[in-house]
From TrEMBL:
It comes from Eulacestoma nigropectus (wattled ploughbill). InterPro entries: Cyclic_Pdiesterase (IPR009097), Usb1 (IPR027521). The gene is Usb1. This is U6 snRNA phosphodiesterase 1. Residues 1-70 are annotated as: Disordered. Keywords: Hydrolase, Lyase, Nuclease, Nucleus. It catalyses: a 3'-end uridylyl-adenosine-RNA = a 3'-end 2',3'-cyclophospho-uridine-RNA + adenosine; a 3'-end uridylyl-uridine-RNA = a 3'-end 2',3'-cyclophospho-uridine-RNA + uridine. One of its GO terms (molecular function) is lyase activity. GO terms for biological process: U6 snRNA 3'-end processing. The lineage of its organism: Eukaryota, Metazoa, Chordata, Craniata, Vertebrata.
Length: 264
């Protein structure tokens, strides 16, 4: 039943759609335009960065095909949606906790669907031209090579919407490990600036998204619902052990290609 809204939408495109919108979800912090670094030749700006698509383009992207969601930017040949993140491998106990949270939250928002993959974003979803992928990944690899593994704790339930309010998420926000995450983002931002791409949000709320629904339903999920969800997390027997996460690798997804960067 969870995938009912996703019928007729190829899996890779469906995933890309989710990543684009999830990478745009945040808990606040306006996004400034990155300044061009002095002395470096400017690359031509990629077409159609995240934001409102052209009205004509928006019409051709039939939102009825994917659960009424609107693509953050028009899908164009040669443009590769690219996202840098920390993958979270869900254990059985985590899926049990997820099931408890989603079934409780559905009493407030019945259309809520659980995420099928879990990650913590280190970048927005940006657009790369095909021939930029290899140099972009090489650049990331160089900058991330010195990073060590670290722990963080993600145990605060929080409600997010994506930038254009077409989608609402329930996530687990990081309460410890924020500093290391900011250091990682600053390296990823450095790479994005070199390619003239938008950097991450200022003052980001780092989180792992658990569930989503179409539209801005944050009003229904905040307050009473949020408190009940937090009580479930706090009372879950494995939660202290479960939500203390050791990150072992960073991943970059570009279109349908995945690149991994192990932490030391």
């Amino acid at each position: 039943a969870m995938s009912a809204a996703l019928v007729g939408y190829s899996s890779s495109e469906e995933e890309q759609q989710e990543e684009e919108e999830e990478a745009g979800s945040r808990g606040g912090g306006a996004q400034g335009t990155p300044g061009a670094s002095a002395g470096r030749p400017r690359l031509p700006a990629p077409a159609g960065l995240l934001g409102d698509p052209d009205p004509e383009e928006a019409v051709s992207d039939d939102s009825s095909r994917h659960g009424g969601r609107v693509r953050g930017f028009p899908h164009e040949r040669g443009n590769w949606a690219t996202h840098v993140y920390l993958p979270y491998i869900a254990r059985e106990e985590f899926l049990e906790l997820l099931e408890l949270l989603v079934s409780r939250a559905r009493t407030y928002v019945p259309s809520l669907a659980a995420m099928e993959e879990f990650h913590l974003s280190l970048s927005q979803c940006v657009v790369l031209r095909y021939h930029w992928i290899e140099p972009f990944v090489r650049c990331l690899r160089e900058r991330l090579a010195a990073f060590h593994r670290f722990f963080c704790v993600a145990d605060q339930v929080k409600v997010y919407t994506n930038q254009n309010k077409t989608r609402t998420f329930i996530g687990l926000e990081v309460s410890a490990g924020h500093f290391q995450l900011l250091e990682l983002v600053s390296e990823v931002d450095g790479v994005l600036e070199e390619f003239d791409l938008p950097t991450f949000y200022k003052d980001p709320s780092f989180h792992i998204s658990l569930a989503w629904c179409v539209g801005d339903l944050s009003g229904r999920l905040e307050g009473q619902c949020l408190q009940e969800l937090q009580d479930i997390v706090d009372g879950f027997e494995d939660s202290a052990f479960l939500l203390r996460i050791q990150w072992e690798q960073i991943r970059c997804k570009s279109g349908n290609k995945y690149f991994s960067f192990p932490l030391r």
